[in-house]
Amino acid sequence: MRDKNFLIENNAKPIWHPMAHPAEMRAQPPRIIMKGDGVHVTDIDGRRVIDAVGGLWNVNLGYSCDPIKRAIADQLDALPYYSGFRGTSTGPSIELAYELTEWFKPEGMVRAFLTSGGSDSVETALRLARQYWKIKGQSDRTKFLALKKGYHGTHFGGASVNGNANFRRNYEPLLPGVFHIPAPWTYRNPFNETDPAKLAQLCASAMEDEIAFQGADTIAAFIMEPVLGAGGVIVPPDSFMTLVREICDRHGILMIADEVVTGFGRTGAWSGSGLWDVKPDMMTIAKAITSGYFPLGATMIGDKVAEAFEADSTGFGSIGHGYTYSGHPVGCAAGIAALAETKRLRLDENAAARGKELATALEGLKSKHVLVGDVRCKGLMAAIELVADRDSKKVIDKKLIARIADATYESGVMIRVSGNNIILSPPLILLAADVATIVQGIDAGLSAAT
Ligand code: PMP
Questions:
Q1: Of 299, 324, 344, at which residue does a domain stop?
Q2: Whole-model pTM?
Q3: How many CB atoms lie within 10 A of CB 22?
Q4: Is any atom of ligand 1 closer than 6 Å to the C-beta of 261?
Q5: Is 149 in the pocket of ligand 1 (CB under 6 A)?
Q6: Lowest CB count within 10 Å: 8, 353, 375, 400, which one?
């Protein structure tokens, strides 16, 4: 690797960064992260901070997980790559698919289609949903329903079901036949409803209305995150996902749970669907599947969908879809090791326990800082929503939130800013003392910047 000066000199120049304006990045180059250990990362200037972002919601096991590193090294020695397209397979892909179907058995998943990440997994689920209805002889069922504020990656299908204008406008026209219903978000919703149970009913009614308007027999699937992540950690009311499952069942609509963030313990349960006790028809997973050590994802397929494909005699059942890196053996080896560690360490229980401590501490920040309009937390995913004024809920200035993030970093804590939210998704191996360090750092950041 070239030296430090080369990296600083070329920072944000030959590279375009995701989710950023190239010119803004050049003007204000990003931090260069050089090392990770446990729940900490160290930047190019040697500053070591606690990573309250967990990479990007994914490094659940932290940066020093030897079993994953060993599994990757061993698999690289044995076989760095072979294709999983028809005719060949590899040991790690078979084993990982087996482990995943065991893992998501309570959610009713029986098959795994391996991908290279979350966007791939969403694309796969949407395509399989359409194909399912062709097999069933209902080829009019092509439309998708999704939640406003939902995030489902950046392929054209995923961007089409995304419920945030920032990820859509510049890429329109997107997939036709996608319709959004209001997110069950108590802090901001078009009904001005703050009671969670009532809000869940109102959003469910809006979904019913949309289905009636479109015609149920034109809708292939509904997709939602069990806890909305990138949209600002929106935790649906307890009843919401069950209501949605009932509506989907009544109208024969497939339900896809996008568990790219919520899978593998993040919410304090092994899956977000499990958290709400709902069985979707398909699940999309990625991120923590390898704890971020290798790009990998999967679309999990429930028994109803699997049976339709496997019993197909219509000729529509062959899967004309897949990625060169579907079932990459090194990624799968990383996945097998990551899942074993995740289970051994009962990261679901740790996320639940640390998440309660985090929620309490964040409420403390809210009492102290008027800028904090709302805090939302489920397990170890949290958002601190910053507002200029609590009554009007006017969002704070972009520059101010950037200053808060910088000051928090100076206090030793890496946080992520998304819109007017501070997003937290630390590694799930977090200790109680780490929770305190994170919240103290944010407290100091808020005080210093305001
Ligand atoms: N779905 C959800 C819920 C996500 O949060 C993300 C990524 N943040 C994706 C899909 C896309 O995943 P990837 O970035 O790995 O393509």
A1: 344
A2: 0.98
A3: 12
A4: yes
A5: no
A6: 8
